[in-house]
Amino acid sequence: METPAVARLFFRNDDVTDLTPRLQAFAGLFLDAGIPVHHGLIPGRATEAVVAWLTDLAKSRPGLIGIDLHGWDHDPYGGAPEFGPHVPRAVQHERLARGLDWMRSRFGALFSGIFVPPHNCYNRTTVVTLDELGYAGLSGSVGRRSWLRRLVEPVAYAMGR
Q1: Model's pTM, two decimal places?
Q2: On the CB side of 115, how many CA atoms lie within 13 Å of its CA?
Q3: Do 83 and 92 meet the contact criterion of CB atoms below 8 Å apart?
Q4: Residue 71: burial class (beta carbons within 10 Å; 0-12, 13-18, 19+)
Q5: Which one of 23, 61, 88, 91 has the fewest beta carbons within 10 angstroms of its own beta carbon?
Q6: What DSSP state is assigned to residue 64?
Q7: Are 67 and 107 in contact (CB under 8 A)?
């Protein structure tokens, strides 16, 4: 599959599941300014209305709209984020393969091929699997977190913060 050209710099809008006036207004701000924005779609929660809107938007504004995969359903695995070192390789592979198939079947060449890990949680297994499956890229952070933040984040996540 040939993927569309990906902007070197873009803003990212995660957790897209439904077509709302707020989502449309947000996208409009970027489009009016000519700034590329990528929408991280959660396939397991996405409505057909948001799929149709994103398709039309990407077709009408090539180069400004990206459609990225933001996990499968954003549900935790074992009480922690959907991807990362706590998730077995087979589970990550299944979710990434299912997400890729879903995105390709809905968006075809409009899908950017970019994976956006929920909660920015991923590991080497995730990256290797993305490469094996043919993803075009990963939009995530690579910064080192302090030991205190690494301790506090799982607790905050579990508390819904």
Answers
A1: 0.83
A2: 33
A3: yes
A4: buried
A5: 88
A6: T
A7: yes
